[in-house]
Specification:
By secondary structure, the chain is mostly beta strands. It contains two helices and 19 strands.
């Protein structure tokens, strides 16, 4: 889907006879400012939630169980500690709690043994994760339904990312960003593209694997926020291009074309 969106952004240009039928992406200009080092762009997920007081369910009250394996996404890893609990809920009731397991390669996994009744079968589960350093309770409702398996060698496996369950920035807007083939710099692996709202980083884009000058990502924002600013860091030029024209956050999916 991302590749198709990028292809659309590249192919949308007006020609004789079809100006009214083909959408044309906005052309943004970007003034340049030098910076001595690469910027540390990242979304600040810190918040002000209180630590929860979850309790392990009494196993004797349930006839069925299943196992869920959760992997922390990369954005969580710098803030992960042994004091961060993760739990699964069904109909608002805690049905299993897990704590982190750290592997030699740095991967962090949670294995949660979820308890349930017969009538819980096919009811959707809810995942909750509290990060003590961020003071943020992440709630994930797009979870699979309760399906008894009780097999440690075949758990449901899910990667947990902060954007999906955060309460700080409840809204998101996807953008496919394209740049022209001819640029005033050479694109390198050290280049970065990010969006900002009121000076706060809200997205660090990922380069499209098939289109070297294409990027994709989601900007997170609060209610009432309607625009974001794009900034591009060139490692070769050692500086940041600030795109003057704002990106419209009210469009949940859009194509953006940057002109340098």
């Amino acid at each position: 889907m991302f590749a198709a969106l990028l292809a659309l952004a590249w192919g949308c240009s007006s020609s004789d006879g079809d100006e009214d039928t083909k959408p044309t992406p906005a052309l943004f200009t970007a003034p340049f400012s030098a910076t001595p080092s690469a910027p540390d762009w990242h979304i600040d997920w810190s918040w002000h939630d209180d630590a929860p007081s979850w309790h392990v369910p009494d196993a004797s009250k349930f006839e069925y169980s299943m196992n869920v394996l959760l992997e922390l996404g990369g954005e969580f890893l710098p803030f992960s500690t042994d004091d961060d609990p993760m739990a699964v809920f069904i109909d608002g009731e805690c049905r299993g709690i897990g704590y982190r397991n750290v592997y030699p390669d740095g991967m962090v996994l949670y294995l949660i043994h979820v308890k349930g009744h017969g009538e819980d079968t096919e009811r959707q589960m809810e995942l909750r994760y509290y990060n003590n350093q961020l003071k943020h309770l992440f709630v994930y409702q797009a979870m699979p339904c309760f399906t008894p398996n009780d097999l440690l060698d075949d758990p449901f496996r899910i990667i947990v990312e902060p954007g999906d369950g955060n309460s700080k920035y409840p809204n998101r807007a996807f953008a496919a960003v394209m740049m022209p083939d001819e640029l005033p710099f050479t694109v390198t692996d050290g280049d970065m593209l990010a969006s900002f709202v009121d000076g706060e980083c809200r997205c660090v884009y990922v380069r499209n694997e098939k289109l070297f000058t294409g990027w994709r990502g989601e900007s997170f924002f609060r209610d009432g926020e309607t625009t974001a600013q794009l900034r591009y860091y060139s490692a070769e030029k050692q500086g940041v291009y600030t795109i003057e024209t704002p990106v419209d956050l009210t469009q949940t999916m859009q194509n953006v074309y940057i002109k340098f």
